[in-house]
Amino acid sequence: MAITIDDADTALELDNLSLWYGEKQALNEISLRVPAHRITALIGPSGCGKSTLLRCFNRMNDAIESCRISGDIRLQQHSIQAAGQDLCALRRRVGMVFQRPNPFAKSIYDNVVYGLRLQGVRDRRVLDEAVERALRAAALWAEVKDNLWQNALTLSSGQQQRLVIARAIAIEPEILLLDEPTSALDPISTLVIEELMTTLKQHFTLILVTHNMQQAARVSDYTAFMHQGSVVEFGLTDTLFTTPRQRRTEDYITGRYG
Ligand SMILES: Nc1ncnc2c1ncn2[C@@H]1O[C@H](COP(=O)(O)OP(=O)(O)OP(=O)(O)O)[C@@H](O)[C@H]1O
Which of 20, 21, 231 to mutate to test the pocket of ligand 1 (most atoms within 8 A of CB)? Predict the structure, then answer.
């Protein structure tokens, strides 16, 4: 498949990636380069394989017993499919944020430093600095700086989702996977998270699964349109939404199906 890409470095490279759940093939020979420090959106009708593909990037599908994968995914030129790949190390490099905010029933502070403490960081000054840095980057610092010991579950859903993003970025991953991160939020909180995504790409590569085509068009630099387990079209978001090359892409973005 011909891929147009700007001069961004490649963060992730997929080579003929296929995936089966038991007998059912859910991904079909996907080859793709995900540009670094950009937002790449995965769009397509329900069941086309968006979340399955996203979960390949940090090997979350490994937990599913019936799942089998062929092909390769390279993170900075190294295969993440290799036997012996340290999954904890991989997930430190590839963080994930889910549809529903899932903070732990702990203080705001303890949520943000959770990953750092797992890594053995104990120095209070280092942790304090990381909390401020991550909360500022997640556009939450101003709202919570005086209440860092408050239970995270008392925050609004939009604040909780920003806290979860702060928790994910506190360990400074290279890639942040976002699986419909705003679908459980109100329109204002959605806007805040969308603005946040565009600032986060300065430091991280973002891959966003969204059902919301307007959101993909608003925030992403690149879009992959998926259908029945295949990437039908991948390119610059502006181009894909204005002059799609494939009939199936055009039908989807004009609302003729899906
Ligand atoms: N754990 C699983 N076991 C078996 N089949 C699965 C599993 N997870 C997903 N599938 C199937 O794989 C296909 C792709 O599902 P996936 O959730 O990746 O699609 P999606 O595009 O993210 O859908 P949606 O937009 O509805 O969330 C679907 O047919 C789904 O039923």
Answer: 21
